[in-house]
Amino acid sequence: MKETKYYLILAVALMIGLGLFIFFGYNRWLQMLVVVGLGVIYVLWGVVYHHAQKELYLRVILEYVAVAVATCLAVIFLLLRA
Q1: Running DSSP on this structure, what letter comes out for residue 2?
Q2: What residues contact 38, with CB distance under 8 A and at least 6 apart?
Q3: What per-residue confidence (pLDDT) applies to 24?
């Protein structure tokens, strides 16, 4: 049950981010800002979650950073192409 609250927080944050991304559909730069913000939130969530689970290692942080950077770059390149 304790883990569920962490995943619920992540899901709500991602839904809010998706809503903001759609809302700012008229401005590609604001959409990019939302995407970068979501990447930062994802990394911070991962750090907090693994710290709470007492499983926080540099390798885990780097994995979250790598996933966030790769995803943000993919979405930003798609936005620049559109």
Answers
A1: H
A2: 13, 14, 17, 72
A3: 96
| Residue pair 50/65 in contact by the 8 Å Cβ criterion | no
- Residue 13, domain extent: 2-81
How many other CB atoms are there within 10 angstroms of residue 58's CB atom?
Answer: 7
Residue with tokens 């970068």: 36
pLDDT (0 to 100) of residue 39: 98
Amino acid 72 reads C
Mean pLDDT, 10 residues at a time, over the chain (82 residues)?
90 97 96 98 97 96 98 96 82
Other Cβ atoms less than 10 A from the Cβ of 78: the count is 10
* Cα–Cα distance measured from residue 77 to residue 43, given in angstroms and rounded to the nearest whole number: 20
Cα 29–Cα 68–Cα 14 angle in degrees, nearest 5: 70
Domain count, the chain: 1
